[in-house]
Amino acid sequence: MTRTPTPLLFLGALALIIATLFSCGNGNSESKNRIRVGGEGKIRVMPDQVTLTINASFSKPKMAEAVRETQATVDTVMLILEKFGKKNEDIKTSSISANKDYQYIGSTYKFVGFQAEQTIDFVLHDLNKFTELTAKLLETKISSISQIQFNHSKADSLLREADLIAYDDALKSANKLAYKANVQLGTLLFLSNDGLAASQGGYTSGERIDTYNKAFGGQGFKIAPEVIEFKRNIITEFGIK
């Protein structure tokens, strides 16, 4: 059985259809009166600082012995680092751990003692002292320098400057497109930058220095830093007349 719609329901449905068409029409009109372009900003500089991740790790039959040896090495390292940087700003203990130590012997893992480990991150602001610093560290019983990361002390300012360059690049592209299309560029309607850098600029050296808890001494390592790049990408949208 077919039910005939009441006049009230019919008028309500008709109003909904008209509102939907009106909304779609406005959206299409707005999209035709704007232009969206992207911009990119790059700044290339030499690094002026390097972060070293220094590890001290010892395995002993007793936990107390492993902790004691690790802490003694860390204390020696801290005294060295304080001569090359500021204690409260440049030196950071990033991890401390103490666990049972198992090694793969034969065809299975066997308990061989207790391991204590501590990791220190240190920021060196004078790259000319890198060789001297590593020479001093090699005189201690550290287990490794697991990471060497180069960066710039004014990274935040460089990224903000890259933002401005990216906007200028987008504006230049928008003006060129408007000229080619024989239209006049209007006001800025949309600007997108999520705050994430396309490139943070710094880079990590692939080198790892293992010392195996031996005090080698001798000469430190030399470095030849590469140019680092700070890059930002933005999206802009302008009205057109």
Please tell me about this protein's structure.
This protein has helices spanning 7-32, 63-81, 87-90, 130-138, 155-180; strands at 34-45, 49-60, 91-105, 108-124, 144-151, 185-192, 203-205, 209-210, 228-240. It is an alpha+beta fold and 241 residues long. The strands form two sheets. Strands 2, 3, 4, 5, 7 and 8 form a six-stranded antiparallel β-sheet that branches. Strands 1-9-6 form a three-stranded antiparallel β-sheet. The model is unreliable at 1-27 (pLDDT under 50). InterPro entries: 26kDa_periplasmic_antigen, SIMPL/DUF541. This is SIMPL domain-containing protein.
Distance between the amino and carboxyl termini: 57 Å
- Average pLDDT number: 85
**SSE sequence, one letter per element:** HEEHHEEHEHEEEE
Percentage beta strand: 35-45%
- The count of helical stretches stands at 5
Largest sheet: 6 strands, antiparallel
Poorly predicted runs: 1-27
- Judged by helices, strands and strand pairing, the structural class is alpha+beta
Radius of gyration: 31 Å
- The coarse overall form would be elongated
- List how many beta strands DSSP finds: 9
Helix content: 25-40%
